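Quick question about two entries, pasted in order.
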Amino acid sequence: MTLTYEQAVALYRQGRDPTVALLLALVEENTRLRADNEELKGALNAARAVQPSAPSGSIPPYAKPNTARGRRRRRPGRKKGHAGVTRARPERIDEVTSHPPLADCPLCHTPLPQRPSEIRERIIEGLAAHKSHATLHQIQRQYCCRCEKMVESPITDAMAHDHISLYTYVLTAWLHYRCGLSTANLVALLAHSGLALSPGALTQGWQRLGNLLSPAYDQILTRVKRSLVLMADETGWRIHGVTHWLWYFGCTYWSYYLIDRHRGTAVVNKVIGTVFDGVLLVDFWGAYNAIETWAKQRCIFHLFTALEKVDLQRPHDVVWRDFRQRIKRLFNDAVRLLDNDRGFGQPTLDRRRQLLADRLAALIIVPRAHKDVRRIQKRLRRHRDELFTFLDYAPLVSPYNNHAEQQMRGPVLCRRVSQGNRSRAGADAQAMLMSLFRSMELHGRNPVDEVLRLAQTAIAGKPIVLPLSPDQAAEIAA
């Protein structure tokens, strides 16, 4: 309904009753239109809604919720009352520079005595500006009558038939595969130091380095398979634009990465085997179902994530909210029981664990008409014996697969820069070098120095032997 100015004036002159009647009609029509508008908005949002089972990578950024909105920002710095921390004095001083005394005061220009009143020390640390370093090796060659050829001592500063130092390849591989620096930026960094290298020469050097260290890569897999608790995870990857998968298998001190075309059980069986003598800590992906283990622990955080996805779609669904609250209370009680702050005895712990199992059975045994409730019930029924394993193997087994997620964080950040690999050889080299770098970091060692030492050992023709993990070293020392 529309009115012109003249019509509104004429209506006003007719008196109060016609004006009030028209205003009420306008308010009623406005209310009805607003209700229709909200209904259309709800239908449009439902049509655009993301399914709860959709992976995070397929959801556009604008459709994801702003989870940090409304949270209180943590105050930076140490808590009140905690002692501050300053930079430690370096263990080695490479150069000492003495500065002459001033002739006059820089403020008032008064002449100063030539003998200083005191000497203040100031240490400045940083990278030294340097150029590339070229070394000429004069190698003594000798003729072997038995082998009938010239022989010489091995040069461990570079790989065979290579003119670039081994340290250059190891350092740039760590910067690329571990820190996420792009190949183009690495080429620019080397050019700044006076070393001209093309991206192809750099990547081919990394591939030769990976092939040289393949025995160490196999040893990491052997030690991972012998661990008591094995954690696994996978994420999407690309090789020349074709979808692949980056797999992680590891424990506390060893990380094994593999890039494969498949995401099924065949990859798990190829790496671990059909039987694993330990506890397997994974998410709910079905590829881990076929492997036989002592026990399995499914990540509870992944279950909570699945619940939150449904919460976004059904925030006012009473049936779903009641079911979700029961599940969250159940597993939160299980985690609190793991802490055992009150020091309960073993009989009390066993009784409470049985109560948890009974509560879980009551949640999954009654069929529900709700679609999302049935889906979560089906998941819980399938893995009902793999949800409270952490209570039986504490503190070795965690209820969360956080360790594997953290080991995947670095490769995922690198993936955002490099978008994967361009060749199968490059993917294999990246898996090998990432495994070595990350395993040495978990040991608390310098990854560049350790990988350089292993590569020099291989060049010298000696067998590669990985260092002992901290727990093995402590066990031998004891």
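Here is the second entry:
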Amino acid sequence: MGQRFGAGHVTNVLRGQGGEQIASRGHDQLSTFGLLKDATSAEVRGYIEQLTSHACFARPMTDFPC
């Protein structure tokens, strides 16, 4: 997505849950939009947490509210 976004925003993109913030940034046009539409929010958040804990994602020094 090219910028820093909280886990909630990333979860919404991956689950295909559009909204004003997602549409205004063009994230509904990403190839990953809706990729995990059949997963629950909790599942996707779990994936993000696992990837973060294994240093697959870089977490900024200040966390965004989720």
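Reply: The chain has a mean pLDDT of 84. The chain has three helices and no strands. Hope that helps.
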